[in-house]
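ok trying this again, last paste got cut off
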Amino acid sequence: MAPVIWGLDLAEFKWSKFNSKYMFGNRDYHLRRTKFAVYQCALIFCVVSESLGTAVLSDYIQMERKIQTIDHTAHVYNNDYVGAGSYNIFAGVFVAFIFGAAFFFDLIWPERYESQGVRWAWKICGVLATIFHLASALTLTIITATHRSRITGVSPARATELLHMYSKYREAPLIYRHNGRAVAAVVFVWLGWVSVAASCVLLFLSINNTEKGPGPKSAHAEGREDTHRRANHNEDPELAMSEKTNSIQEPELTHGPEGVNNMNYTASPATAHETSR
């Protein structure tokens, strides 16, 4: 028997649940397909943005080390983009942790029980993920559009010479907006934020449906199950026979004028006529 951890039955963990037919073909749960599509968009866009930003800041860090190793008097300033890219990684990981977990739990344990405290935790984390990623999108956009890296401590000619000694200097131009991957990271970070905000709204709607509606299942699924139960109730011969038997009234004992117990039946008119004869 599979163990139960935190109220989650591990016996329900089946690889077949990762099938696309089970993910998107199952319409029994409230906003299931919409949540799965939007959650995955948020995860994908955020991962692409942080991956592009990581590649860009890695190039600038390597350029700084290369130039300062060749000429110790030179100093390369690119901490603004390194900081923005690092924060974008944190925001993307936070989004993946929250909505990746929401996706996983809704897929494996869609009818799990959650206390009020756990539901509040989901809501707070969803709002924090939206705020964190909005801050990341604004920071990355402003720095990419308006800032640039600088080489100080040497003459401009020497700075250009040192820059050309770095093999990837064309992939890491000093002006950030001239870096194609940096611009692409900005585009995907905004796509990611829109998806994260939509995911947060869906998370709230799902929890509200669980608290005030029919539970994790959709309204049409509940109606279909009620119809199915009523149909099975009427088609069950044993149950029907039991109801028919119970519907027949048991004979009642009455006392006649002579004090003799008589049976009181509900008889048809024909039977009553024969009796009178």
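PB: full thing came through this time. Strands lie at 4-5, 8-9, 75-77, 150-152, 252-255, 261-264.
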